[in-house]
Structure formats: structure tokens, C-alpha cells
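Sanity check

After download, print the first record. It should look like this:
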Amino acid sequence: MSFSVTILGSASAKPTPNRHPSAQIVNVNEQYFLVDAGEGVQQQMFRYGINPLKIRAVFISHLHGDHVYGLFPLISTLALYGKKTPLPIFGPAPLGEMLENHLRYFDPELPYAIEWQPVDTTRHALLLENRTLEVWSVPLRHRVPTSGFLFREKEPPLNVRKEKIEEYGLSIAQITAAKRGEDVSLADGQLIPNMGLTYRPYAPRAYAYLSDTSYSPKAARLVEGVDLLYHEATYAHLERKIARERGHSTAIEAARVAMNAQVGRLVIGHYSSRYKDEEVLVNEARTLFAESYPATEGKTFTIEARKTL
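Expected C-alpha cells:
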């Protein structure tokens, strides 16, 4: 069962020759989600072999251009490719008006529906849920209303241990009952506890995207224990005064969130254009949190399933 994050953009607002504005693709069990849509996002998707027709939903963290300018041409391109199924779009409330204007002036006859879903950036709330996945908002601290996003896999169904099927001669009905979490009664009246028959094939996985934000202990609490955390690290810690004034974080602050939240791995991005080499930021983060990595464009971070046997 797949769970991965592909980096499409790692820059902050100012253009650079070799970095693109913020965008990522999150793949949870072959469900593809676009998280932020900086300028040029569709070109980046093509560059890295991601079919835009696979996108199930779009999540926009906030309404600064480097996170949203690429959304509108993508909407038009999807129509050219013949998309027919609805596209849910989640984001701060004013994005709804922007979408209305885009549809009015550029795509009045769009062949698929835009399902606009406003996000309350002040609340930690469930945004999307299906059989295998939940997506939650995470309030952030920026100059404009901003939300991060938490992708959390649901617990997989129980499996019945093969050796127990043979040991007790379980029938199909008894196996089905065990998979539902029930204890099983044998023909001789013996009651076998469910925990002695079943196991979870893997532990649920989780990914958190903390876009533009000042250091936030609350956000750290809300994403505690995730396998993979993306946290903006626009500046080195020497520039912490500028970071604070502009509603951003330093690499050390991103690492502090990862450490306090006890995450598995940290990915940092949204680099200021003043840093020609992001290694200075990555190395700074690693002084506090060793499992820190750069948001290298085109790189896919895979979250492996951890067996619970």
C-alpha cells in the first residue's frame, strides 16, 4: 500500500533559476492529492511524470501567490484533457470568490464540477474522509489566514493468522467474524479471544504539511508522531528576526517542531532566494534533529508500511 510525497516546488516568493514555488503531490494508496499550487505546477507535474487527471482533490494552505497562482491554469488544462469527475478544492474562504471569477471569465463551460470547500484556518478540523484516509486542517501562524494539512491513514482491516485457521479449523463464517473484531466460539464451546486470532497488517501512517508559519507549539502538538513532516524553513537562524517579522520559520525552529512532535523524518523547504545552496539550512536543522532532509524538487519521500506482527 503506497504512501509517498513528491516535491514539485521548494522556493519562497521570489523566482530563482532552479527552484519553483510551493507544490507537492501526496499519494495515499494511489489516491493523489495536490498540496499548494505555485506558479508552474502543471509543468512540474509533467516533468516528473505525474498525470494531472489522477488528482482527487487540491489543498491550498493560504492565499499568497507563490502557493496558488498555478491552480487556475491547471483547472483549464484539466478541461482540455477531458476531465469529467468533480474536483474538490479546499482553501481559505476568499479562494471561493477567486474560483468564481476564474470560472466566469476563463472557464464558463468547464466539463467537470469544482467542489469548493472553505477551510476555517483557526480550527483543527476533519476536511476529507473516505474508507482509508482522513485529512485534517492544522492552524498555522502567518501574516494571512493559513492552514497546514495532516494526512492520516485509517487503521487497516484485521487479518486472521493462517496458523490459527489451521489450528482451530475455522470456518469462513468464523474467519469473517474474526476480521470484524469479534471473539470466536468453537464447536466445543471454547471462546477464542480476537487478539489471539488476528493482527493488523501494518501500522497506520501519517504525513503533515506545515506551510508558511512562524514557530508554533500548537501545530507541533497537532502533528505529534507523524512519520513524515514537511515544515517551511525560509531562513537560517541568524535571520530569525526577519523570519518573525514576515511570519516565517528558521531551520532551527522547523527542527524544534520535529523534535517536540517526535516525528520520524523532517523535510524542510520554502527557501529564501538569498540561499543559493539549501545545505546551509539542512545542516542547521540537523544540529537539532538528525533526520532532516531538503525538499529537493522531483524527489519522492516514501513512508514504508511498518508491520505490526
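If your output differs, re-run the checksum step. Summary of this record's structure: The chain has two domains: 3-156+200-302, 159-198.
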